[in-house]
Amino acid sequence: SQQGEEDPQALSIQEGENATMNCSYKTSINNLQWYRQNSGRGLVHLILIRSNEREKHSGRLRVTLDTSKKSSSLLITASRAADTASYFCATGAGGTSYGKLTFGQGTILTVHP
Amino acid sequence: DAGVIQSPRHEVTEMGQEVTLRCKPISGHDYLFWYRQTMMRGLELLIYFNNNVPIDDSGMPEDRFSAKMPNASFSTLKIQPSEPRDSAVYFCASSFSFPVTHEQYFGPGTRLTVT
Predict the structure, then answer these.
(1) Hey, are the CB atoms on B97 and A100 less than 8 Å from each other?
(2) A25: distance to nearest CA of chain B, Å?
(3) Which chain A residues touch B95 with a CB distance below 8 Å?
(4) Are B89 and B108 in contact (CB under 8 A)?
(5) Does A42 touch chain B (CB under 8 A)?
(6) B16-71 per-position pLDDT tens digit
(7) pLDDT at A2
(8) How far, in Å, CA of B105 to CA of B95, rounded?
(9) Are B71 and B19 in contact (CB under 8 A)?
């Protein structure tokens, strides 16, 4: 079953604008991660937020987590053409899923120069 | 470190042939994952290993697919016989159990085309 669902499926913006992507999930988690995938490449880890955190920053990235709503958002500020990629959220849980991440379907971000 | 290494990068084969995909995880990582990515189905987890032992193979599509990890530095994913619907990009990823958040490191993928 799909754990993470990203919204929107596709986002097109101009360079310099901010990009916000959302992720919803269904079951309890101990962390949520965001990954980026450039066309034809493997996924690259961007940022992680633990279930007891509400907000995290890394450079131009800001991620929030609302465990009561089972949702997260990724904000990319002052976007650049090089940010064009697909972005995936992934959730990690303990128990029988220890070690495993469940990925969403991704948001395709296009940043126009 | 060279990162996760996958070979071959591209594979074109005819239906019915055996296909073997290879992966070398990052040294010291104790988890290894095989994923398949298609436009229709997105990124699917096929199987993952911990300390060379398969933990969950519930994502393996059918008996035509098998995976092994004979040692900590090598894993294979085999499809026999291959079918056109197996065409996809196959990714290998590895992670380390400390910290427990298990950030995964992906290889460049193998693009498989079955004609």
Answers:
(1) no
(2) 16
(3) 99
(4) no
(5) yes
(6) 999 999 999 999 999 999 999 999 989 999 999 999 999 999 999 889 999 999 99
(7) 43
(8) 6
(9) no
A9 touches chain B (CB under 8 A): no
Mean pLDDT over A17-27 rounds to: 95
Inter-CA distances, A94 with A41, B91, B92, Å: 29, 23, 22
Question: Which DSSP helix (H) or strand (E) runs through A71?
Answer: strand A71-76
**C-alpha distances in Å from residue B22, one per residue of A96, B56, B68, B90, B109:** 27, 19, 10, 10, 10
B104 and A41 in contact by Cβ < 8 A?
A: no
Q: Which amino acid is at B55?
A: I
B105/A48 touch (CB, cutoff 8 Å), yes or no: no
Give the lowest-confidence range in A64-73, B89-98, B99-108. Answer: B99-108
CA neighbor of B83 nearest in space, from B10, B39, B17, B20: B17
pLDDT of residue B98: 74
Q: How far is CA A88 from CA A10, A27, B30, B56, B76, in A?
A: 12, 17, 23, 22, 26
